[in-house]
């Protein structure tokens, strides 16, 4: 809470410069992607998979009550499980998983089965519903802080959240992040903006990565 207030005050005072956009990652071959995931040192930002379009988030919304929210569809639940299985098959090891407070994000992390516990962080809540959003908002800066945090050696961090948050934090190159898509970033201490986009992987791309990881 204090950190968010300080960031907001700094922005209003002009102490924090306008956010710098991150360039879209270059295309990588499946075997290079498999090696990157196996090597760790990444922050993996995943947009929650497909949801039930007949449902809508209530206003006000109760994060403790999934019945007041738009939830994962059966297809979305299958996507979450499949992406988790693909990351395990590629040799990815996670240090931690952090999600927004929405059930669709928390459920995604559970279904992926990559960590025993996933932390819920309100700073990752859907930026499209926030009164103060945009690249210089406290919420965007909180996401950038997560993308800058270097994981322990050989491990990666998983973030499961929403498309607007990443677009605000990393720039318009990520405004089209698809449901279930993973954007991989490498923290770059001392280099503005503190992280670099490594890859974007759609759900349908994992088959080739898993095959490459298996040496096929």
From TrEMBL:
* Coiled-coil residue windows: none
Which InterPro entries does the entry mention?
His_Pase_superF_clade-1, His_PPase_superfam
Signal peptide bounds: 1-18
Keywords, alphabetical: Signal
> What's the name of the protein?
Phosphohistidine phosphatase SixA
């Amino acid at each position: 809470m204090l950190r968010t207030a300080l960031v907001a005050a700094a922005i209003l005072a002009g102490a924090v410069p306008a956010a710098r956009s991150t360039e879209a990652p270059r295309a990588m071959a499946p075997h290079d992607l498999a090696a990157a995931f196996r090597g760790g040192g990444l922050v993996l930002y995943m947009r929650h998979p497909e949801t039930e379009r007949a449902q809508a988030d209530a206003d006000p919304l109760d994060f403790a009550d999934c019945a007041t929210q738009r939830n994962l569809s059966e297809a979305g639940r299958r996507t979450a499980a499949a992406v988790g299985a693909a990351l395990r098959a590629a040799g990815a090891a996670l240090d931690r998983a952090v999600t927004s407070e929405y059930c669709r994000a928390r459920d995604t992390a559970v279904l992926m089965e990559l960590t025993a516990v996933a932390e819920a962080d309100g700073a990752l809540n859907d930026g499209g519903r926030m009164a103060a959003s945009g690249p210089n908002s406290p919420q965007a800066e909180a996401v950038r802080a997560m993308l800058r945090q270097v994981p322990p050696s050989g491990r990666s961090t998983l973030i499961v959240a929403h498309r607007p948050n990443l677009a605000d934090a990393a720039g318009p190159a990520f405004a089209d992040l698809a449901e279930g898509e993973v954007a991989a970033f490498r923290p770059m201490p001392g280099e503005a903006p503190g992280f670099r986009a490594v890859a974007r992987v759609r759900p349908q791309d994992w088959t080739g990565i898993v095959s490459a990881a298996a040496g096929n």
